[in-house]
Design brief:
Blueprint: E1 2-3, E2 8-11, E3 16-17, E4 24-30, H1 35-38, E5 41-49, E6 53-54, E7 59-61, E8 64-72, E9 75-77, E10 80-82, E11 87-91, E12 96-98, E13 103-104, E14 108-116, E15 127-131, E16 138-141, E17 144-150, E18 152-153, E19 156-157, E20 166-173, E21 178-184, E22 188-200, E23 205-208, E24 211-215, E25 223-242, E26 250-252, E27 255-257, H2 260-271
Parallel strand pairs: 1-25
Antiparallel strand pairs: 2-24, 3-4, 4-5, 5-14, 6-13, 7-12, 8-11, 8-14, 9-10, 9-13, 11-15, 16-17, 17-20, 18-19, 20-25, 21-25, 22-23, 22-24, 22-25, 26-27
Length: 284
């Protein structure tokens, strides 16, 4: 199996002012603006809240999927409650409104990823999946525990339904432990270090907290894998990898479209009240 390397590294910038007042700070883990390089991932924000209370206002999305990973704390809105380790996988499709009356706990931290939908599914019917950490399959081995939210690991398949084929795994490693994840050669991917330090890929590239290591699609169609090894204090890593869509998109505000006309259609449909509320779609 061909061993992947880390081809580029970015560092998450310092936290800056967020949209929810002084108690909210945020930074971009994946910045928008170079979609050919990050495809199918459009952006990913790291949100921190120091005090409990309201978190933003209800707002729309269309033409994309949002993947909200609760790292710490809780968030509750009209559709229910998310706790540490839960993931909300929301396919906005042709339009949805979410975060209705959202309330969060003190110390809340989450990652929210935006995924670009395939052209044929950009205007699909919206859906919401809640992936509870306690219900996710786990791949355990010598010194590691990998919780699989999407895709598969060592033949263990996660329950998430994907419009874009995506692997999402939360990997916890003891000191010096190694973990290897098979990935299709066509996948673009990145690892984010949440705690500790790792060596990643064939070059044993060192990545520390707040660093993002990218592994690019391979030119040859072959089986591939990404190898991770924890440093002396162990590590926690999130691995995201997905199939590039290789399409041109137009983004504005909370919408991603294939053209300016399609974008205008999303705004018109939202103003006309045609978007359903995500809270009504959450499974119990």
């Amino acid at each position: 199996m061909f061993q992947r390397s880390i081809d580029s590294i970015t560092t998450t910038p310092p936290l800056g002012p967020g949209f929810a007042g002084e108690r909210h700070k945020a930074a971009l883990v994946v910045a928008p603006g170079d979609f050919p390089a990050t495809d199918p991932f459009f952006l990913m924000a790291d949100d921190h809240v120091t005090g409990e209370g309201q978190f933003g206002e209800a707002h729309p999305h269309a033409g994309l999927e949002t993947v909200t990973f609760m790292l710490h704390g809780t968030m509750e809105d009209a559709g229910g409650r998310l706790v540490e380790g839960d993931v909300e996988w929301m396919t906005a499709g042709n339009g949805i409104v979410h975060s209705e009356n959202a309330q969060v706990s003190a110390g809340m931290r989450l990652f929210q990823l935006w995924l670009v939908l395939p052209e044929r599914e950009r205007n699909m019917t919206p859906r919401v999946q809640i992936l509870r950490r306690d219900e996710m399959p786990v791949h355990r081995g010598d010194g590691f525990e990998a919780t699989i939210y999407s895709g598969c690991s060592a033949g263990i398949v996660a329950p998430a339904k994907n419009a874009v084929p995506v692997t999402l795994i939360d990997i916890r490693l003891e000191a010096g432990a190694e973990f290897e994840q098979a990935l299709p050669s066509s996948y673009n991917g990145f690892v984010v270090v949440i705690a500790g330090e790792i060596e990643a890929g064939t070059g044993a590239t060192v990545l520390t907290v707040d660093q993002v290591g990218w592994t690019s699609p391979l030119t040859a169609d072959r089986d591939s894998a990404m190898r991770l090894k924890a440093g002396k204090d162990g590590a926690r890593v999130l691995l995201y990898a997905g199939e590039p869509q290789k399409i041109s998109v137009v983004a504005q505000g909370p919408f991603i479209a294939g053209s300016k006309d399609e974008l205008a259609g999303y705004y018109a449909a939202y103003r006309q009240g045609k978007f359903p509320n995500a809270g009504t779609m959450r499974p119990v």
